[in-house]
Amino acid sequence: MTPGVQLIADAPESYAEALPGCRMSRVIGASAVAGLDGGFMRFDADTDLGSWRLTYDEVVYVTRGELTVVPEDPAGDAVVAAAGSAVAIVSGTTVRYRGRAGTHALYVLTPRGAMPRSTKRVPRDGAARRSDSTSA
């Protein structure tokens, strides 16, 4: 390892199901990068991850597909991030993440350790939903 520089790889074997339709890999928190946490996420199906209140600042960079972030508290317009764009979310904001099947993203948050270590996410409204062609 080069002092001060570390490669953080997207390793398929490191993924665990966060909620139905979404897998996450928490590789940044396990790295030597002080103060940061995060990893990679993949959506295997069109999925609404439910309402989630952030206790950290987060940036999500979409590398493939499309991710929609809907601010609920405070309420605001949905932000749609296509491949090559990022969404910044401020601590204390309640949002819904809606990913399209095939979407891949990198998420980075601070402070380190603010997101529960388990990749299992429990949304505030208690339900993650896979979207299908009959729901919008």
From TrEMBL:
Spell out the residue ranges making up region: Disordered: 115-136
Question: Which Pfam family name is an example for this entry?
Answer: EutQ
Here the segments flagged for biased composition (Basic and acidic residues) are 122-136
InterPro entries annotated for this entry?
EutQ, RmlC-like_jellyroll, RmlC_Cupin_sf
Question: What name is this protein filed under?
Answer: Ethanolamine utilization EutQ family protein
